[in-house]
Amino acid sequence: MAKRIAVVVRDRQGEALRMAIGLILMDDIIDVYVLDNVVEDTEQNNLNVETLQDMDMKAYSNVAENTSMECLTVEEIAGRLLHYDHVLAY
Hints:
The protein is α/β, with parallel strands linked by helices and about 90 residues long. It has three helices and five strands.
């Protein structure tokens, strides 16, 4: 049975996004939550965000400037995190 895994991104954006993409190889359900920051405009981050979209992974943020992600409030994100098997914080 597939596990539900949330990756919460704050500081190490490049590493967290790359790791989230790698987790899909286990056929688990991976969702990404970027909190309190705009995803830095680097080549690595841009490629990782594009790959998230290509793999139909869901990405959320509490910052509206992250236009490639669905914007949620902190309270909505906190409520959703309760329903995951694992929450990985970066």
